[in-house]
Predict the 3D structure of the following.
Amino acid sequence: MESVSQFSSRLVSRTRLSDSAFDVELERPKGFSFRAGQSIRIFVGDAGRDYSLAGGPSAGSLTLCVRLVNGGAVSPFLAGAPLESDLSFTGPHGVFTLVQSARPLVWAATGVGMAPFLSMVRAGATGFTLLHGVRCSGELFHRDELEAAAARYVPCLSRETTAGCFSGRVTAWAAANLAPGAYDISLCGNRGMVRDFLSLVDERLAGSRVFTEIFF
Amino acid sequence: MRANVGSGDGGMTSLLSGERVPKSHARIEACGELDELASVLGALAASLAEDREVERVEIRQVQGELLHLGAWLAVTPGSLTLGMLKPPSEGPVEALEGSIERMEKDLPPLQGFILPGGHPSAAWAHVARCVCRRAERRVAAIPAQEALPWLNRLSSWLYVLARHCNQVRGVPENLWKV
């Protein structure tokens, strides 16, 4: 893999997105570089958790979109620790990065799984179809920025009916609207979405390539 | 971080470069062999006496190299994903050669064919050697020439390691006499 190293950093700022989600900005250590879509592993004590970087690779700080997991190993620290608190991380991790291809790009995200796609947008990506799956419209974090870069932006709400949004899961939209063909499909989110999307690809979108990043 | 999500129930899986392929695909076969080898090496490490820390560390390094190689083989040549992976190189080959030299210094010359067995750790090393040879054949079938030198050297290392394991435990080698 690319060189993975350990870095020291600090909490710089925190921005509330919802009752259970927030953006957190970290000091960017000297010598740390990454590709849009990659992740870092943040450690609190001996426990480490992976977070996709949401900022662009050339940004002066590192940004994460975090969902608070009550009783979790790291997110409560990111949610509650005083600003300027020290932390350590390893990275960059993963090969989930921007795909350069002549095929149509289809991205599907659930929850804060839109973070690596936001990083790709901030790196200049355009022309993709983004299926943004959440429970309700208030969870469509960074919608404006994502929608502005997308060729087609499809907000999918699983527990709410709102004008301008698809009512249902991202896989339901894809099954009903993606014409048979070969796509480059990037999936980031919960394992159920990834599993269902892969089944759809095998059944109806043969010849597509699929790249996945799963949130536990 | 990837996890088993049940997406392979239909017999398909993904290469790291994104292609959906049947689980019988040559690259998946090769990756499976590497996975099996890493597991057998785990059994070998578990069978070592507590004081064999040097061997345990070397086995762990080999298991890490197997992970790197598996990732490399799970990518179609020409994919941009390759640029993000550690390519097979001379360094790990030389590390194995150095280890072979160190172990061989204390081993008696070979007097014939060795029947696999002896101390459990030696027996596991022989099993690992056979799995390694099978992995090598699968990798050759892809073909992925760049990965072959290390696998070839690894099976030699496992052969010498098996002899070494018997020697350090005082177990005589079982020679086949025609």
User: Anything to note?
Assistant: Chain A has a mean pLDDT of 95.
